[in-house]
Amino acid sequence: MATKTTIADLFPDDEGMILVAAHAVDGSLRHITEVANGAACGCICFGCKRPMVAKNGGDPSRMAYHFAHRPEDMVYDCTTAGETALHIRAKEIIEKHRRVTLPPTTTPGLDGKPVDVTPERSIELTDALLETATGELIPDVTATMPNGRRLFIEIANTHPCPQSKIEKLGIMGVEVLEIEVAGYRTTPLDDLDEIILHIAPRKMIHSSERKAKATEIAEERRRIEEKERQEAERLIAVYREPPSARHRKAAELVEEMSLWGFDEFMDADDTQPSAFIVPRCQWQAAVFYRFMDTQYPATVSPIDMVDRFREREWEKPDLVFMKTETSRKIAALAEDFKSAYEEVLAYMRRLEKAEVVYQKPGKTFYMTYDFKKNLKATLEALQADDAKRNVIREVYEGIEKLLKPGGDGMPDFEGWLQRQANRHELAVQEFLADDDLAYEVEEKLKEIKRVIEERADGLWGELPDDLMGLPMGDLVDRLMQTWHEAEESTGDGWRAKMESS
Ligand SMILES: [Zn+2]
Fold it and tell me: Which residues make beta-bridge pairs with 116?
């Protein structure tokens, strides 16, 4: 019997209101307006199958027409009538046509973007069953696909299939299609065929093909991650290799910086892993010098420095051009791992903290005015000390030259100077920085030199009491002996002959 009953009639807004029932004899759907009044309607409840009473007499504006359960059945919570009626209709449609359209399926690919798995397609169905309990679950409609797989069809009206049901269906390993009919509330049940079969929005809640594809992608991802992990471990081993090269010029920079009192800005005896083949203090000194050479507003960025180091081939070849993203991934396995860029940036930040440099926006740095000013003063003082050292060295070497004919015996100048400083419990630099001490040592040396020169001319003068730690007595004795012999064998020209030899 044809009916104009719509989905909306199955689910009236007034909750609990029942507008449709099944004919007790043929099970066909009857609307409240189509049946006789009272128990004579001959209908049963779609939900609980109990007999129903039609309340369709009198003025509908005073009391809306509806079906009711008999008072003696005391049924107050039968709310599945409309839903069951809809499922019956869907099953009838599917059974009649024996086909349904499955939507296209996708699954997230390696990059997270959807990958096509199956296209939209219409499939043949070999049977259709209504609400057959399968385990503890009651699918709305079940059918069998051409490949023999079971297809559960969920008809979603107001609510989509609940998550707990989705999970349980997933465990069962069946195909699950959800058809969304909420947009067709005003469509008569008789006109639902194409809507259920093809038109209504639908999605595959579970699809074995999609699952297989997802598994395949997950395996591929595992393979890639395993490869990445192996590569990361190889790079970590490279990172742990000690420095393999020393750069002569950089080593000189390190020595100079140390001389200037900047040991705190270099990791001299550093044994930490590194992205560089040269010792850490060497590239640190190179960065420091770059700052000294750069005049504001020019700045130094870690990228500039790394580019320079790359040109000089100071980076470990396996770690060149490492992206920060890659180094972060590796750092997840070895937290001390850093790219050359990260190491240089960390060093610049360290200088920033020590107020040697400032940072400008965009991760680029320059040496502070105050630091540059102090540095200039330090360098000037060091230059003055060097001048003093040269004067002392000149006198010292003069004595050495005088003594040469007697055989060499003068200590090395730097070692001797060190001992002079030690006598005052000072470092050489501090010793030279003291004008009085430097002048005193210069004068004492000059006095020694004068006495030796006079002796060569036959004037006997006493050597000073303080011989400045020089093994003078013995040397001068040997010298006198040599002079004497030369004088005897060559007559008056002995001095000229000695000096030219
Ligand atoms: Zn009922």
Answer: 106
Distances, alpha carbon 389 to alpha carbons 159, 433, 437, 445, in Å: 94, 10, 12, 13
Both tokens of residue 339?
């790219």
Distance 342 CA to ligand 1 centre (A): 72
Task: Report how far ligand 1's centroid is from the alpha carbon of 36 (Å).
Answer: 19
SS3 300: strand
Cβ atoms of 29 and 207 within 8 Å: the answer is no
Cβ contacts of residue 259 below 8 Å, gap of 6+? 382, 429
Could you tell me the distance, in angstroms and rounded to a whole number, from the CA of residue 143 to the centre of ligand 1? 26
Closest by CA position to 45, among listed 65, 75, 15, 11: 75
Q: What is the DSSP track for 475-498? A: HHHHHHHHHHHHHHHHGGGHHHHH
Helix (H) or strand (E) holding 224, with range, is helix 208-240
Q: Count the neighbouring beta carbons within 10 Å of the beta carbon of residue 187.
A: 15
User: pLDDT-based confidence at 305, cuts 50/70/90?
Assistant: very high
Please give the pLDDT value at position 196: 94
Query: pLDDT, tens digit, for every residue of 112-164?
Result: 999 999 999 999 998 877 766 556 667 788 899 988 888 999 988 877 788 88
Helix H or strand E segment including 499: helix 494-500
33: which 2 tokens?
């307006």
- What distance in Å separates the CA atoms of residue 194 and residue 473, rounded to the nearest whole number? 124
Please identify every residue whose CB atom is under 5 Å from ligand 1, which is an ion: 45, 47-48, 78
CA of 74 to the centre of ligand 1 (A): 10
pLDDT in tens, 32-71: 999 999 999 999 998 888 999 999 988 888 888 999 999 9
Query: Which pLDDT score is estimated for 496?
Result: 65
Measured in whole angstroms, the distance separating CA 393 from the mean position of its chain's CA atoms is 57
CA 95–ligand 1 middle distance (angstroms): 25
